[in-house]
Design goal:
2 copies of one chain form a homodimer. Chain A is mostly beta strands. Chain A is about 10% helix and about 35% strand. Chain A contains 1 helix and 7 strands, in the order E-E-H-E-E-E-E-E. In chain A, the strands form 2 sheets. In chain A, strands 2-1-6-5 form a 4-stranded mixed sheet, covered by helices on one side. In chain A, strands 3-4 form a two-stranded antiparallel sheet. Chain A is globular.
């Protein structure tokens, strides 16, 4: 599959067309975070081998780890059946979450309400 | 965490407020699919123990497996740091993908363009 196969126009329309990217630890298979990519972010990720997203809060390209040092070295990228979500397997330097937790998914929801 | 902690107003506005739900195999930790939930879908998921999503194509609640028999029994639900994405760990009956593949993420993207 190539970048042209990715459905960047399928979900978000503004300020740029984004798709969700699930980020999984290559070794442990722990799910670390979900971020968003536009075509440029995916192109940069493939070119550099380091995960690059689109920051919805700052409206700019976001090289994960550029300020924290917590880079993600990409080992594989897969597209889903509908071509509107991607899965990255990464080697995570440091932690994925800005709170200092290893994964962003550290808040359990009670299964009985 | 409880349903009131989930940021259903954060991403999608129409036809209902949706958040992405990453679905992971409880045993193998394989990432199976990404779907979307509104508050009702999450409430039903918690109440029934079976993964229920919002179908963006049919604009209705979607009990995964209702037609295929490929139910997902939910073992855990976690909310991410920003409260706008959830992670489900499930026991998958049959396969997750409508194509017959075990996971929806079966299309590798070349790491060199």
């Amino acid at each position: 599959m190539r970048i042209d196969d990715v459905g960047f126009d399928s979900i978000f329309k503004a300020p740029t067309t984004l798709i969700p990217a699930i980020v999984q630890d290559f070794t442990t298979h722990e799910v670390l975070m979900l971020a968003y990519m536009n075509r440029e972010a995916l192109t940069q990720t493939i070119k550099t081998g380091r995960a690059t997203y689109w920051s919805r809060s700052r409206n700019e390209l976001w090289i994960k780890g550029a300020t924290s040092g917590h880079f993600q070295d990409v080992q594989s990228i897969s597209l889903d059946c509908d071509s509107d979500t991607i899965l990255l397997q990464v080697i995570q330097t440091g932690v994925a979450c800005h709170t200092g937790e290893h994964t962003c998914f550290h808040k359990p929801i009670d299964l009985k309400e």
